[in-house]
TrEMBL record, chain A:
GO annotations of cellular component type: plasma membrane
Membrane topology note: Multi-pass membrane protein
Origin species: Maribacter algarum (ex Zhang et al. 2020)
Transmembrane segments: 23-43, 58-79, 91-109
UniProt cross-references to InterPro entries, sorted A to Z: Cyt_c_oxidase_su4_prok
Keyword terms, alphabetized: Cell membrane, Membrane, Transmembrane, Transmembrane helix
Primary localization: membrane
UniProt subcellular location: Cell membrane
Protein name, per record: Cytochrome C oxidase subunit IV
UniProtKB/TrEMBL annotation, chain B:
GO biological process: aerobic electron transport chain
Its membrane topology: Multi-pass membrane protein
Keyword Transmembrane helix: yes
A molecular function (GO) term: cytochrome-c oxidase activity
Species this protein is from: Maribacter algarum (ex Zhang et al. 2020)
Protein name: Cytochrome oxidase subunit III
Transmembrane segment boundaries: 28-50, 78-98, 110-130, 264-295, 307-327
GO cellular component, as recorded: plasma membrane
Subcellular location: Cell membrane
InterPro entries on file: Cyt_c/ubiquinol_Oxase_su3, Cyt_c_oxidase-like_su3, Cyt_c_oxidase_su3-like_sf, Cyt_c_oxidase_su3_a-hlx
UniProt cross-references to PANTHER family, sorted A to Z: CYTOCHROME BO(3) UBIQUINOL OXIDASE SUBUNIT 3 (PTHR11403:SF2), CYTOCHROME C OXIDASE SUBUNIT III (PTHR11403)
C-alpha cells in the first residue's frame, strides 16, 4: 500500500513535516476561507453587490470561487486525491465537472427564458 | 510514472489482490458511489438554480430567513449556519486524523478520532433538526394572495418586520377546524392559524403604522436588493387580494416567500441530513469494529479510510449547500 503523502500545498509554497501537520494546516486554511465568506455575507460591500459580471453579482462570483477552492482542498487533502494516481484523480474529478457544467448551463439558460416569459409575456402571476 | 502496469503473477484477482489505478476494489467502488452521489446532489442544486433564476426578482433573501441562534433572541443572520459548517469541517479533520492514525496502526488514536468524528456528526444533525424546526414554526406570519404571493408586514415606525400576532385584532367568532368525521371523504382540514384572515386584515386597518412588504426585490435605485415596501394606501388595496394566513413553512405554504424555496430547503438539506445521519451510523459501526480490534487483526485500517471518504464527501456537499442556499 502506498502510504507516501505529498506534503506540500499551494504548489509547494507551504510545506509540512508530517501528514498530521498538513491536515491542521488545511483546516486552518479552510476556516480562514469560511470566515471570509461569512464576513462578506454579513457585510455585503456595495462595490461587490452593485457590480455585475456575466449576469451575476460580483459577490456571488466570489462566493462560488471560494467554494470551489474549499472543495479542492477537501478533495485533494482530506479525501487524499493528491496521493492517488493521476488517472484515477482525473476520472473522478472531470466526469462530474463536465456533466454538472452541462446541466447547469442548460437549466440556467432555460430558467432565464422562463423568467422573461413571466416578465414580458402575457402571464399574470402577481394577483 | 503514474500509469499502471500489472506486475507479478501470483496476485489473487478475485480476492481483491489486483489493484487497478493503485486503489483497492472497495476504495474504487466507494469512489464510484461518491461520483454518482455527487451527480444526484448536483441535480438537486441545479434544479434549485433553475427555480431561482426563474423567480430571480421575487426569491426570498436567505439572510432574512435564517436569522436565529438557539437559546438567544435577536437577529443573527448566518451565524448558526457558519457554526454548523465549522463543526462539519472539524469533524472532517478528526476523520482524516483517524485515517492517518490507522495508516500508522495506532488503534487507540483511531478510536479517539472516530469518537470525536461521530460526536461532530451528531451535533451537526441536531443543529439541522433545530434549524428545520425553526423554519417550520415560522417567525412573523404572513398573508397569501389568490396568486400564491406572500405579503409580509413591516412596522413603518421602526422599519422592522411586524409579526401578525403583534397587531392582529381579536374578533369573537366561531372558528371550526374541519375534522375527518365531518368530511365527505377522509380529508382533514388544515390546522387553523393562530389568527384568522379577518383578524389580520382588521389589525392592519386599525394600526396605521403597518405596511405590506411584497416578494418583489427592488432591482435598481434606492434600496436595491431589498424587498419592495408598499405605501399605506397600496397596503390597504393589496389587502383585498389576500385569501389566507400563513404561519411558518411546509411543502405547500411558505411565509418567507416563494414556496419552491421551502420545498428545495426541505429536499436538499433533508437529503444532506440523511447522508450525515447514515454517515454517523456507518462511522459507529466502524468505530465498534476498531474497538473490537477487527482491523488490527486484518493488518490494515482501510475500512476507516473508506468511510472517511464518505464522510468527507458529506462535508464537501455541505460546502456547496452552504454557498448556494445561504450565501449566494
Amino acid at each position: 500500500m502506498a502510504h507516501e503523502h505529498k506534503l506540500e500545498i499551494f504548489r509547494g509554497l507551504w510545506k509540512f513535516k508530517s501528514n498530521t501537520q498538513k491536515i491542521w494546516g488545511v483546516l486552518a486554511f479552510l476556516c480562514v476561507v469560511t470566515a471570509i465568506e461569512v464576513v462578506l455575507g454579513i457585510m455585503k460591500p456595495e462595490i461587490l453587490t452593485d457590480t455585475y459580471f456575466l449576469g451575476m453579482k460580483l459577490l456571488n462570483w466570489i462566493f462560488i470561487i471560494l467554494t470551489l477552492v474549499k472543495a479542492y482542498y477537501i478533495a485533494w487533502d482530506f479525501m487524499h486525491l493528491r496521493d492517488e494516481k493521476t488517472a484515477l484523480r482525473r476520472a473522478i474529478v472531470w466526469t462530474p465537472i463536465f456533466l454538472v457544467l452541462y446541466l447547469v448551463f442548460i437549466l440556467l439558460f432555460e430558467a432565464d427564458y422562463v423568467y422573461n416569459v413571466y416578465k414580458d409575456g402575457f402571464v399574470t402571476w402577481n394577483f | 510514472m503514474d500509469s499502471t502496469v500489472a506486475t507479478g503473477s501470483e496476485e489473487n484477482v478475485w480476492g481483491g489482490g489486483n489493484k487497478p489505478l493503485g486503489a483497492s476494489y472497495g476504495k474504487l467502488m466507494m469512489w464510484f458511489f461518491l461520483v454518482s452521489d455527487a451527480l444526484t446532489f448536483s441535480g438537486l442544486l441545479a434544479a434549485y438554480g433553475f427555480s431561482r433564476f426563474k423567480f430571480i426578482e421575487t426569491w426570498p433573501i436567505a439572510d432574512e430567513v435564517f436569522t436565529h441562534v438557539p437559546f438567544v433572541h435577536g437577529n443573527f443572520p448566518m451565524i448558526y449556519v457558519a457554526f454548523m459548517t465549522l463543526i462539519l469541517i472539524i469533524s472532517s479533520v478528526t476523520m482524516v486524523l483517524a485515517v492517518d492514525a490507522g495508516h500508522r496502526m495506532k488503534k487507540n488514536a483511531v478510536i479517539w478520532y472516530m469518537f470525536l468524528t461521530i460526536i461532530g456528526g451528531a451535533i451537526f444533525v441536531g443543529s439541522q433538526a433545530w434549524e428545520w424546526a425553526t423554519f417550520i414554526k415560522g417567525d412573523f406570519g404572513a398573508l397569501e394572495t389568490k396568486g400564491g404571493r406572500i405579503l409580509q408586514f413591516v412596522n413603518a415606525d421602526t422599519g422592522e418586520r411586524a409579526a401578525i400576532a403583534d397587531f392582529a385584532t381579536t374578533i369573537e367568532s366561531e372558528r371550526v377546524n374541519h375534522e375527518k368525521k365531518n368530511g365527505v371523504w377522509y380529508y382533514e382540514g388544515q390546522a387553523l392559524p393562530s389568527y384568522s384572515l379577518n383578524e389580520v386584515i382588521a389589525g392592519v386597518k386599525a394600526n396605521s403604522n403597518i405596511q405590506i412588504r411584497t416578494e418583489a426585490i427592488i432591482q435598481e435605485g434606492e434600496g436595491q436588493g431589498e424587498k419592495t415596501l408598499l405605501s399605506r394606501e397600496e397596503t390597504l388595496t393589496k389587502l383585498n387580494d389576500a385569501v389566507q394566513v400563513v404561519e411558518g413553512a411546509n411543502l405547500i405554504q411558505n411565509e418567507y416567500g416563494s414556496r419552491l424555496f421551502a420545498d428545495f430547503f426541505f429536499f436538499i438539506t433533508g437529503f444532506h441530513g440523511f447522508h450525515v445521519t447514515s454517515g454517523v451510523v456507518i462511522n459507529l459501526i466502524i468505530f465498534f469494529n476498531v474497538v473490537l480490534g477487527t482491523y488490527e487483526k486484518r493488518g490494515h485500517y482501510e475500512m476507516v479510510e473508506k468511510v472517511g471518504l464518505y464522510w468527507h464527501f458529506v462535508d464537501l456537499v455541505w460546502v456547496f449547500v452552504f454557498t448556494f442556499f445561504y450565501l449566494v
